[in-house]
């Protein structure tokens, strides 16, 4: 290999795109934990715009794309800052890595949506692959689908053939779901 480089966990796990860098790793029999820190510059005080000084650190766990057939957890050490002038505290912004209050990294959300739409896996199987609960995976997938599919005004441009797939499941209450798929792009264009 002519273009080989030294091993870099940040590049291999694609964390450099998320604004994170791996500090350490811990491999368990059932999952892997990557302890990370943000690489982006801290923002000034949201109140007065003054510079902040490091106050303390909080830990935020994010499910990430599984590696080695095991769920991967990003344990992000998020610095908190305090403004010397107005005494306000705030956290370092890690929105490139995950949405606010999100429990999945952006790459994990992308993988989950692709697993549902392209690979046609169930939400339960996708959640198990990520090592999270069904509700956590479902909430992240629906939020991403709303952002990517349903709010895009051009989502139906070029669609010439539409198929309708109806699923009825009985489980103490009758549940109904209908998907409208673009048969050429293999994508869900509407669901209800």
Strand content: 35-45%
Q: Which percent bin holds the helix content? A: 10-25%
Biggest beta sheet attributes:
5 strands, mixed
Low-confidence stretches: 172-178
Record field, number of beta strands: 8
**Count of helical stretches:** 4
SSE run: HEEEEEHHHEEE
Give average pLDDT, whole number: 83
By helix and strand content, what is the structural category?
alpha+beta
Distance between the termini: 50 Å
Radius of gyration: 20 Å
Shape: globular
Number of domains: 2
Brief write-up:
With 192 residues, the chain is of the alpha+beta class. It contains four helices and eight strands, in the order αβββββαααβββ. It is globular, with a radius of gyration of 20 Å.
What would your notes on this structure say?
The protein has four helices and eight strands, in the order H-E-E-E-E-E-H-H-H-E-E-E. The radius of gyration is 20 Å and the shape is globular. Mean pLDDT is 83; it is low at 172-178. It has two domains: 10-151, no CATH class; 155-192, no CATH class. The protein has helices at residues 9-12, 106-117, 123-130, 134-150, and strands at residues 20-27, 32-38, 52-67, 70-83, 89-91, 162-171, 173-182, 187-191. Helix 2 (106-117) packs antiparallel against helix 3 (123-130). 21% of the residues lie in helices and 38% in strands. By secondary structure, the protein is α+β, with helices and mostly antiparallel strands. The strands form two sheets. Strands 1, 2, 3, 4 and 5 form a five-stranded mixed sheet that branches. A three-stranded antiparallel sheet has the order 6-7-8, with no helix packed on it.
């Amino acid at each position: 290999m002519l273009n080989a480089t030294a091993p870099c966990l940040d590049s291999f796990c694609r964390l450099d795109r998320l604004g994170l860098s791996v500090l350490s790793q811990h491999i368990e029999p059932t999952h892997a934990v990557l302890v990370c820190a943000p690489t982006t510059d801290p923002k000034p005080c949201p109140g007065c715009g003054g510079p902040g000084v490091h106050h303390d650190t909080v830990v935020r766990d994010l499910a990430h794309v599984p590696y080695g057939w095991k769920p991967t957890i990003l344990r992000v050490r998020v610095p908190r800052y305090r403004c010397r002038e107005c005494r306000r505290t705030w956290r370092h912004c890690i929105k490139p890595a995950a949405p606010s209050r999100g429990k999945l990294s952006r790459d994990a959300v992308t993988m989950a949506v692709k697993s549902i739409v392209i690979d046609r896996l169930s939400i339960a199987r996708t959640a198990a692959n990520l090592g999270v609960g069904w509700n956590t995976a479902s909430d992240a997938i629906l939020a991403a689908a709303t952002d990517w599919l349903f709010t895009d005004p051009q989502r139906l441009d070029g669609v010439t053939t539409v198929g309708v797939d109806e699923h009825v499941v009985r489980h103490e209450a009758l549940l109904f779901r209908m998907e409208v798929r673009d048969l050429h792009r293999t994508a869900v264009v509407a669901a209800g």
